[in-house]
Amino acid sequence: MTLKALIALVLFLPVLANAQDADRGRAAFADCAACHMVKAPDGRALFQGAKVGPNLYGIAGRTAGSSKGFNYSPSLRQAGQQGLVWTPETLEAYLKNPTTFLKKWLKDDTARARMAYRQSHSARDIYAFLKSAK
Ligand code: HEC
């Protein structure tokens, strides 16, 4: 292998790794699709799913509770107004236990999440998929 090819390979590896995370995340998203879809603003369904929860298109890096046309719980809307943004870390903590997460975030023991779903494994792949779904 030439040095140029080696450098190209090393530079390309993180891109490849990201694509793999996103592929795994797409597969894992099947669980989420029981309640969520990923639908682009032009109407393309990037992942078919139900409307129990908000459309998760463009969620990576976005303020919580800000998808138009969804009736969020008061707690999630409030968390967004107080600056909650979806990152790999906040998504993972939220998915572990949405209500516990919101109670902590809002420092309010009466906070309640409306998402009846929990998962204990890493949310990194799902985040990578949601970030890549365009
Ligand atoms: C049983 C239905 C259900 C399942 C399954 C589910 N969710 Fe949700 N999700 C909801 C509902 C309902 C809300 C709105 C919560 C609220 O208003 O408090 C929500 C909210 C969210 C939000 C906040 C969206 C925003 O606009 O701020 C994210 C992010 C999210 N879900 C991710 C996921 C992911 C990722 C999965 C799969 C690992 C998943 N959810 C599985 C029902 C579900």
TrEMBL record:
Q: Which terms are listed as keywords in the entry?
A: Electron transport, Heme, Iron, Metal-binding, Signal, Transport
Look up the domain of life of the source: Bacteria
Query: Care to name a GO molecular-function term for this sequence?
Result: metal ion binding
- Answer yes or no on keyword Transport: yes
Give the Cytochrome c domain ranges: 20-134
Secretion signal: which residues? Answer: 1-19
Protein's recorded name: Cytochrome c
Q: Which organism is it from?
A: Thalassococcus halodurans
